[in-house]
Design goal:
The chain has helices spanning about 15-25, 35-45, 60-70, 85-95, 110-125, 150-160, 180-185, 205-215, 230-235, 250-260, 290-295, 300-305, 320-335, 345-355, 360-375, 385-395, 405-420, 425-435, 435-445; strands at about 5-10, 30-35, 50-55, 75-80, 100-105, 170, 195-200, 215, 230, 240-245, 265, 275, 280-285, 310. By secondary structure, the protein is α/β, with parallel strands linked by helices.
Length: about 450
């Protein structure tokens, strides 16, 4: 049998009695309250070690109850429960100091696990939580959308990681929203007023990437007519996102390692290093462990970047979020196009949900944007280029009659074949094509090519 003092707070009589009854049978000493206000009045007598509170209640919300408990420095841990999960609430709950955030309908095994973990940590005399941050809550609901359990865990991580300055590695397939997660971490941090700067490491060759990140002094190279500050200097105490960090060269990896170890960098052509206070977040779609094993990525840099890690699920692994995502994207697209409200008929939505989305959220955005151009009130199925229709648009051009094959269709097809041959490695693909990586990136964007992972 379990032991410990609990306070269950829920305005729904059925939920409150069911949960309180279950926890009492488990051996906990349970006090129940039907509002946050009542919880505060019984707090002294009940002296709970853990409080399980609903979020949306008449009067004070569960979030407001948590804030009052934080202000009073009451030693209880708070587990918040809600039927209305969203990114903003999850992040705010974890930032303010919630121990955990659970979603209805309640899974009793998850409640048991959360309580056991919480009591074990309390009884292991864990250190008291850091003081809560008090900056105004930011409205970031447009950054990330979805209520899949995997996304809820990411929202909770964002709330926890926002308060610390250690490097974070965000991993996930192309188009899953890694940059948006990095932006959310920054926007919820104490330094959210400082700049957020995202740099695509595959878009520039080493020499330009070094100048972009570290800056240069006058005369450092041809065309350097004056001093130029790099992103690490311009960011101040803000955040630098190194996107696709898995593709940087070995030589540049050594320079990044120095920044992470020594917190200093050297502008191109400068004699003295400069200090940086910027937080580093890295993102990649590559399997860096394989790169380390192959000798293409420094193991010491990998461990420096991966102090904390977020793994973003592909869209096909959270299909339940597709309807919400599609409606959200379509509202934004229709507003930008001045089309008024557009709807997604059920057959079209079923097609969106069953498609595997190799390009993830980015591909969904592109597909809905293309379809919205032709829409009159509703998205038409024939305007969605998915599945067989999508493959038809990327098939080899018919060369039996060269006059019918455009140069663009041939170029697009050739780039796709080379990218498939290199497994999506842009540097190798650019080398095989005899072009620079920046030019390859421009062609990929021009032809809306999905890069294999």
């Amino acid at each position: 049998m379990k032991d410990g003092r609990l306070l269950v707070v829920d305005d729904d009589d059925a939920h409150r009695k069911t949960l309180a009854g279950y926890l009492t049978r488990q051996g906990y000493r349970v006090t129940a309250a039907d509002s946050a206000e009542q919880a505060l009045t019984v707090l002294a007598d009940a002296d709970p070690e853990v409080i399980l509170s609903d979020i949306r209640m008449p009067g004070l919300s569960g979030i407001e109850l948590l804030e009052k408990l934080t202000d009073s420095e009451h030693p209880a841990d708070v587990i918040l429960i809600t039927a209305f999960e969203d990114m903003q609430t999850a992040v705010e709950a974890m930032k303010i100091g919630a121990y955990d955030y659970l979603v209805k309908p309640l899974d009793l095994d998850r409640i048991d696990a959360a309580l056991e973990r919480c009591f074990w940590e309390r009884r292991s005399q864990r250190q008291a939580p850091a003081p809560a941050m008090r900056e105004p809550a930011l409205d970031l609901r447009n950054l990330l959308v979805g209520s899949d359990p995997k996304m809820i865990e990411i929202y909770k991580l964002i709330g926890k990681l926002a308060a610390v300055r250690t490097p974070v590695l965000i991993r996930g397939e192309t188009g899953t929203g890694k940059e948006r997660i990095a932006h959310a971490i920054h926007a919820h941090s104490p330094n959210s007023s400082e700049p957020f700067m995202a740099v695509n490491c595959t878009a520039l060759p080493d020499t330009l990437l070094e100048s972009e990140l570290f800056g240069h002094v006058r005369g450092a190279f041809t065309g350097a007519v004056g001093d130029r500050k790099g992103r690490f200097e311009l960011a101040g105490k803000g955040t630098i996102l190194l996107d696709e960090v898995g593709d940087v060269s070995s030589a540049f990896q050594a320079k990044l390692l120095r920044v992470l170890q020594e917190r200093e960098f050297q502008p191109v052509g400068a004699e003295q290093p400069r200090r940086t206070e910027a937080r580093v977040i890295a993102a990649t779609h590559r399997n860096i462990e394989d790169l380390v094993e192959a000798g293409d990525f420094r193991e010491d840099l990998y461990f420096r970047l991966r102090v904390l890690e977020i793994v973003v699920p592909p869209l096909r692994e959270r299909r339940g979020d597709i309807p919400e995502l599609a409606q959200h994207i379509l509202r934004q697209v229709s507003t930008e196009m001045g089309k008024g409200e557009l709807v997604i008929p059920r057959p079209v939505m079923e097609k969106l949900v069953t498609y595997d989305w190799p390009g993830n959220v980015r591909e969904l955005e592109n597909a809905l944007t293309r379809a919205a151009v032709h829409a009159q009130g509703a998205i038409a199925e024939e305007n969605l280029f998915l599945g067989d229709a999508e493959r038809a648009t990327t098939a080899a051009p018919d060369l039996s009659d060269p006059s019918q094959a455009s140069l663009e269709s041939m170029e697009r097809y050739h780039i796709q074949r080379v990218l498939a041959k290199t497994g999506g490695h842009k540097a190798n693909a650019a080398k095989m094509l005899g072009i620079s990586r920046p030019r390859l990136n421009r062609l990929i964007e021009k032809y809306d090519i999905t890069v294999p992972r």
